[in-house]
């Protein structure tokens, strides 16, 4: 303190002072203080983008979003979501680098660690990093989230920025980091779909796996054109085993790149072992598919979602709806649908058309690993039993709707099908799941359920074909029936394998199975099953072009069924007899048998065979074209209503033959080509139709 001896003024400075200070006794005139102002730095935080293959559609989407946003007064926010390893970060960084000239005021980047082993990033921590990037000294940055967010917004006002927020866990984590400045673009990557941001006006794009050609391009980029081109078949297998996921392909390519003398087939063989595939897709601890998926799994909430994920890994099929998932986990359907939504939002499941869901192959393997590691064996077995039981119940309901005349038990309380066509469509759509369920059930000793499941699938094969796959399924049913020690089931499945062998032209093997079944039926004293098996032997005689031998068998079958009091089976045998008589040149004798069969089947719940009898009568009356066509068109309409591809093909072929015999070649071609389309769709033999069409040519 200085005291002027001529004055009472005191010249002192006390307290806390921020900034410049001037001490003076007297001031005359104005005071001007000039302080140098340093410009704020322009942050350039984007890391390298890495390799990007294809993704042109996604880049174009981001371009369009940027174009629209630049004309508005608010920032453009895009959520790039997708499963682990699909390339979300690469596409976002690549786009940001490509368009950096549009953002002269800076590029911000933060790894939000939504799926890291350590805790996810605190928004206040990230805001501190962003604020420091603009040159603000650490001691001038407030401590609270609200204060930091306010300072951040004041710094970015009127600036054009690109902000990449990588691996976000939630919308709440992201919101404080969004700049309010128009002309800016924020790219948020996440394994979650972040519906909360969408509600706030963000745009979203779901990143899918690469297509096959793009996946091959990635391998070519990493391994060279010569190495991939020299083993193109193996390269395609490798792409398939890696599920076309960029991270998985990159890991596989990295292993191959360090072993230049390894053939690609070596890696294919390693990945082909399903229980070793995730282990084979690893290079270092921080670069594995298993690690990426485990982090996604560990972030699931509530715990019931993680349990559903695990148990769905045991599901025997490729796709499933909420009803199948509910059966597997033993939860109410409403709760299961909610949990499926959680898994879908986490991009561990894909939702597909028709209200179904599916795993990518690598995700399914991981879910299965989690189930085997965390669920007791008894829980796994019970889940599988519930899944098999559910498919058996649904297939029985479908079988009843498509073939009500069959003595298939109909479960109580199970939703039905509107009609035969809807039931057949369901079985057709679910065929791969039904096959997988039968295989899994047999492997786990559920033999009674498996042979009953195969038995219930009969209408699918009758109406829709599946010629090449049918024998495998029927033989699986036969093995399950034998494992049960059930003679009745054993003989039924022998009849089924014989039918499958017949469709493949393996007549001697079919006859052997039928004779074996016949011995069992005789031992059981089952009269009408003996008649059924003899009828099948008669069909084999027709296949071998021995109609007279077939006529004898079918006449005996008619008499046996009449004696047994089985009117429906009498009608079926009369249809067979009428067909044999027609094809042996005795169409006139066939007409009364077929007419009687039509009358009898009209009183039965068997619309398929009633329609078939109309078609066979139309063929028998081919010399009266107008009468024949009327019968055939009626039969065709009934087959269309049933959704029977096989029945429609038979009717159309018959219409074509009638038209051809009447000299109407254009009509004949139209009918025959349509018939061929149905057979081709069922993977059935088209040789006969090809010959008829070649005659027209």
Task: Give structural notes.
- This protein has 34 helices and ten strands.
- Helix 7 (212-223) crosses helix 9 (232-241) and helix 20 (431-443) runs parallel beside helix 23 (467-484).
- It has 697 residues and is mainly alpha-helical.
Strand arrangement in the largest pleated sheet: 4-5-6-3-7
Number of helices: 34
Q: How would you characterize the largest beta sheet? A: 5 strands, parallel
Rounded mean pLDDT is 87
Low-pLDDT segments, ≥5 res: none
Broad CATH class of the domain at 56-206: Alpha Beta
Query: How large, in whole angstroms, is the Cα Rg?
Result: 37 Å
Strand content: 5-15%
Globally, the shape reads elongated
Distance between the termini: 121 Å
Helix content: 55-70%
User: Any idea what the CATH architecture of the domain at 56-206 is?
Assistant: 3-Layer(aba) Sandwich
Show the helix and strand layout.
Blueprint: E1 2-3, E2 10-11, H1 56-69, E3 76-81, H2 88-98, E4 107-111, H3 123-133, H4 145-156, E5 162-166, H5 171-174, E6 185-190, H6 195-199, E7 203-206, H7 212-223, H8 225-230, H9 232-241, H10 246-257, H11 264-272, H12 277-280, H13 289-298, H14 303-312, E8 319-321, H15 322-329, H16 333-345, E9 350-352, E10 356-358, H17 361-374, H18 377-402, H19 420-429, H20 431-443, H21 447-456, H22 458-464, H23 467-484, H24 487-503, H25 507-524, H26 527-543, H27 547-564, H28 567-583, H29 587-601, H30 607-620, H31 625-642, H32 645-661, H33 665-681, H34 687-696
Parallel strand pairs: 3-6, 3-7, 4-5, 5-6
Antiparallel strand pairs: 1-2, 8-10, 9-10
Helix pairs in contact: 3-4, 7-9, 7-10, 9-11, 14-16, 14-17, 15-16, 15-18, 18-19, 18-20, 18-21, 20-21, 20-23, 21-23, 23-24, 24-25, 24-26, 25-26, 26-27, 26-28, 27-28, 28-29, 28-30, 29-30, 30-31, 30-32, 31-32, 32-33, 33-34
């Amino acid at each position: 303190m200085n005291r002027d001896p001529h004055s009472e003024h005191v010249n002192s400075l006390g307290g806390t002072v921020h900034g410049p200070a001037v001490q003076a006794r007297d001031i005359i005139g104005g005071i001007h203080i000039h302080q140098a102002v340093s410009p704020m730095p322009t942050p350039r935080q984007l890391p390298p983008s890495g390799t990007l293959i294809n993704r042109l559609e996604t880049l174009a989407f981001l371009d369009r979003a940027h174009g629209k946003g630049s004309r508005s007064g608010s920032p453009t926010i895009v959520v790039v979501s997708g499963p682990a390893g699909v390339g979300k970060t690469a596409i976002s960084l690549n786009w940001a680098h490509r368009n950096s000239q549009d953002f002269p005021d800076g590029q911000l980047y933060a790894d939000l660690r939504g799926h890291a082993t350590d805790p996810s990033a605190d928004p206040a921590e990230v805001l501190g990093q962003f604020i420091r990037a603009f040159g603000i000294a650490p001691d001038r940055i407030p401590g609270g989230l609200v204060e930091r967010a306010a300072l951040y917004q004041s710094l970015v006002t009127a600036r054009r920025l690109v902000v990449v927020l990588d691996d976000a866990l939630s919308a709440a984590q992201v919101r404080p980091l969004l700049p309010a400045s128009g002309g800016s673009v924020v790219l948020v990557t996440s394994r979650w779909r972040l519906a909360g941001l969408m509600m706030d006006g963000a745009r979203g794009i779901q990143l899918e796996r690469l297509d096959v050609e793009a996946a091959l391009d990635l391998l070519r980029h990493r391994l060279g054109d010569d190495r991939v081109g020299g083993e193109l078949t193996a390269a395609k297998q490798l792409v398939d085993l890696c599920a076309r996921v960029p991270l998985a392909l990159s890991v596989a390519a990295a292993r191959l790149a360090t072993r230049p003398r390894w053939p690609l087939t070596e890696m294919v063989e390693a990945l082909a072992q399903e229980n070793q595939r995730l282990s084979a897709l690893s290079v270092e601890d921080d670069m594995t598919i298993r690690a990426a998926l485990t982090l996604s799994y560990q972030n699931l909430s509530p715990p019931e979602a993680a349990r559903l994920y695990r148990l769905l890994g045991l599901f025997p099929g490729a796709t499933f709806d909420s009803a199948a998932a509910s059966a597997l986990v033993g939860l109410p359907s409403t709760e299961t649908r909610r949990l499926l939504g959680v898994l879908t939002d986490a991009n561990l499941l894909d939702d597909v058309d028709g209200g179904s869901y599916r795993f990518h192959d690598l995700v399914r393997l991981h879910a299965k690993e989690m189930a085997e590691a965390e669920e007791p064996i008894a829980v796994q077995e019970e889940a599988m039993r519930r899944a098999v039981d559910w498919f058996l119940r649904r297939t029985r309901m479908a079988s009843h709707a498509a073939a009500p005349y069959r003595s298939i038990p109909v479960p109580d309380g199970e939703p039905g099908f509107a009609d035969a066509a809807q039931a057949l469509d369901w079985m057709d759509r679910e065929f791969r799941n039904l096959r997988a369920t039968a295989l899994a059930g047999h492997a786990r000793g559920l033999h009674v359920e498996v042979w009953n499941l195969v038995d219930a699938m009969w209408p699918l094969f009758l109406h829709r074909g599946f010629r090449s796959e049918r024998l495998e399924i029927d033989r699986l049913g036969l093995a399950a029936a034998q494992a049960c020690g059930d003679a009745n089931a054993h003989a039924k499945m022998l009849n089924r394998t014989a039918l499958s062998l017949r469709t493949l032209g393996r007549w001697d093997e079919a006859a052997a199975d039928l004779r074996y079944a016949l011995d069992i039926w005789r031992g059981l004293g089952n009269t009408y099953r003996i008649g059924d098996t003899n009828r099948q032997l008669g069909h084999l005689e027709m296949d071998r072009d021995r109609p007279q031998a077939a006529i004898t068998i079918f006449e005996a079958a008619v008499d046996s069924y009449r004696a047994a009091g089985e009117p429906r089976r009498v009608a079926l045998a009369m249809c067979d007899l009428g067909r044999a008589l027609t094809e042996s040149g005795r169409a006139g004798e066939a007409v009364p048998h077929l007419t009687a069969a039509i009358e009898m089947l009209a009183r039965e719940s068997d619309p398929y065979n009633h329609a078939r009898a109309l078609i066979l009568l139309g063929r028998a009356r081919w010399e009266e074209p107008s009468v024949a066509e009327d019968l055939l068109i009626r039969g065709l309409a009934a087959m269309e209503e049933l959704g029977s591809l096989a029945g429609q093909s038979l009717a159309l072929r018959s219409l074509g033959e009638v038209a051809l015999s009447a000299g109407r070649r254009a009509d004949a071609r139209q009918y025959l080509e349509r018939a061929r389309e149905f057979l081709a769709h069922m993977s059935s033999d088209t040789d006969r139709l090809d010959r008829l069409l070649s005659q027209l040519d």
